[in-house]
Amino acid sequence: MTSRTFVMAKPDAVERGLVGEIVSRLERKGLTLVAAELRSVSQELAQEHYAEHADKPFYDELVAFLTRSPVFAMVVEGPGDDTWELCRILIGKTKVTDAQPGSIRGDFATTTNENLVHGSDGTESAAREIKLWFGDRA
Ligand code: RTP
Ligand code: MG
């Protein structure tokens, strides 16, 4: 029972030339890209993507950050039903001081706001985000 999740190299990752590193870590783990796209993000898409955070104090900053420059959006597949969770482990914890070395954030991020990668946080959000970003193209 394979499963898919949504992973995105955020603007800071593209700006810093870390897309290859991020894709490499996913692939080295044994996960596969089934769709990927470098794209600019509209205000509307950024707002919808982070809709769960609409009432948080950092929401406007988050939307501004995501629309700053292109992102590399991916649909990632793994052999089990836990692909979203495996990706979150590779990505690392949200808070910069919690992100452990060995994870993408732990190895490369110095702030919580610019933390390089997004990964869906569950089966339902993975389905929602794959549809939002790729529609029928994944
Ligand atoms: P993401 O959605 O981007 O994969 O990150 P996440 O699940 O690890 O964290 P989440 O709680 O969904 O927060 C989304 C993004 O908002 C920023 N954030 N800032 N200042 C803060 O307390 C704070 N908390 C979260 C981070 O950039 C986080 O990635
Ligand atoms: Mg999140």
TrEMBL record:
Annotated Nucleoside diphosphate kinase-like domain residues: 2-137
Protein name as it appears in the record: Nucleoside diphosphate kinase
EC number: 2.7.4.6
Coiled coil: none
Assembly and oligomerization: Homotetramer.
Gene it is expressed from: ndk
Provenance organism: Iamia majanohamensis
Subcellular location: Cytoplasm
Residues reported to bind ATP: K10, F58, R88, T94, R105, N115
Sorted UniProt keywords: ATP-binding, Cytoplasm, Kinase, Magnesium, Metal-binding, Nucleotide metabolism, Nucleotide-binding, Phosphoprotein, Transferase
Active-site residues, record numbering mapped to chain: H118 (pros-phosphohistidine intermediate)
Cofactor: Mg(2+)
Catalytic reaction(s) noted: a 2'-deoxyribonucleoside 5'-diphosphate + ATP = a 2'-deoxyribonucleoside 5'-triphosphate + ADP; a ribonucleoside 5'-diphosphate + ATP = a ribonucleoside 5'-triphosphate + ADP
UniProt xrefs under SMART domains: NDK (SM00562)
